[in-house]
Design a protein that fits this description.
Layout (H helix, E strand, L loop, with lengths): L12 H5 L18 E3 L4 E8 L2 E8 L4 E2 L8 E3 L4 E2 L3 E2 H5 L3 H9 L2 H14 L8
Antiparallel strand pairs: 1-5, 2-3, 3-4, 6-7
C-alpha cells in the first residue's frame, strides 16, 4: 500500500488553520457563532422541536428567557466584530461583486434629485448634474 498525503477538503484558510468561521445571520450577530460570548456566562444552547424539526435555541439563564443576542448588554464577540445595532462586522465585510456593482450602478438617489430639481425649475432634462 502506498502512502498518500492527507488531502485537505476545504480551500478556506480558516479551516486550514483550524480556526472556526463567524456565523452571522443576515448581517446580524448570531448566538450560534463560535465567537459570541455572554459576559455573565448565562448562555445555554438548547435543542427545541418545532413541528418535529429540531432547532437550536439560545437560552439565557440570567433572565430565564430566550437570548436576545447582540442587544444584550452582556453580549460580546471574541473577535470584536459586534457592532452597535446587533450587526456583525464580518457580515458587512463580505460584500460580493454583485453587491458592489449594484452600489455603483444604483443611482436612484441621483435620479430622484434630478426629478425634484426639474420640477422646481420646470426643465425636463437637466444634464449639468
Amino acid at each position: 500500500m502506498r502512502d498518500q498525503p492527507n488531502k485537505v477538503r476545504f480551500n478556506d484558510k480558516a479551516s486550514l488553520q483550524g480556526e472556526p468561521k463567524p456565523l452571522p445571520l443576515g448581517g446580524k450577530c448570531n448566538y450560534l457563532c463560535p465567537y459570541f460570548r455572554c459576559n455573565k456566562k448565562a448562555l445555554l444552547i438548547q435543542q427545541k422541536y418545532n413541528k418535529g424539526n429540531p432547532q437550536k435555541v439560545g437560552w439565557c439563564r440570567w433572565v430565564g428567557d430566550t437570548c436576545i443576542t447582540g442587544d444584550c448588554q452582556y453580549a460580546y464577540c471574541e473577535k470584536r466584530a459586534l457592532l452597535p445595532g446587533n450587526r456583525c462586522a464580518y457580515a458587512n465585510a463580505r460584500k460580493t461583486d454583485d453587491d458592489i456593482e449594484k452600489d455603483l450602478t444604483g443611482d436612484d438617489e441621483v435620479d430622484k434629485v434630478k426629478d425634484i430639481i426639474s420640477k422646481k425649475f420646470g426643465k425636463k432634462d437637466i444634464d449639468i448634474l
